[in-house]
Every structure is written in C-alpha cells, then in structure tokens.
Amino acid sequence: MHLMSPIPHQAFHKLSTRYGPLVYFFIISKPCGFASSPEIAKEFLKTNETNFLNRPKVANLHYLTYGSSDFATVPYEPHWKFMKNLCMTELLDGRILDQLRPIRREETMSFCG
C-alpha cells in the first residue's frame, strides 16, 4: 500500500480508471478487492456477503477477548446473531436510549470537565 501513492484514494481512482470498477489484488498474501462505485459494491456484497462477515483469527486478540466471546470479534454464527438481537432490543431500543439519556449526559459532563 505504501508503494502505491502518498494519497491512497487517488491511487485507487487511477486503478479503477485503468482496470474497471472492480479490482482484485493482493496485499502481501491476503486477497483484496475494491469497488469504485456504490452500485458495484452493493452487488458484490449482496452476492458474497458471507465471505466477508468473519474477522481474521488473531492469537493475541483471541486471548485478550476471552476466546473471542465479545460482540466485535465473535465469528458470524448463531451466537453472533443472538448477541446482535440482544443488543438491538435491550441496549439500542429507543425507549431504553431515552431512559439512559440522563446517565449519558452526566457521564459526558464528567468526561469533559
């Protein structure tokens, strides 16, 4: 990546004008791809969504997150779906957010000053 250009987004634009809206390449040994238009990205992710849902397995992250048991690093499986549903209904529901507003305001004020 550092050999492409000092401004990566311009290098990606040049690649897309030369090779088209969907470019496949390798960074070290990892296959990568980028889509230069929203339509191509939407179509690409619609048909290949499950290939991109899991995060890479990293030993130290596995150790630090108690076996990848947190929401951010858990593999895309039924447990992830359950955790997402739990977060959406119990933490991010509009009613719950309204109830927790004074606490968020108080914590923000204590953080800022």
TrEMBL record:
Keywords: Heme, Iron, Membrane, Metal-binding, Monooxygenase, Oxidoreductase. Its cofactor is heme. One of its GO terms (cellular component) is membrane. This is Uncharacterized protein. GO terms for molecular function: heme binding; iron ion binding; monooxygenase activity; oxidoreductase activity, acting on paired donors, with incorporation or reduction of molecular oxygen. It is found in: Membrane. Pfam families: p450. Belongs to the cytochrome P450 family. InterPro entries: Cyt_P450, Cyt_P450_sf. It comes from Dipteronia dyeriana.
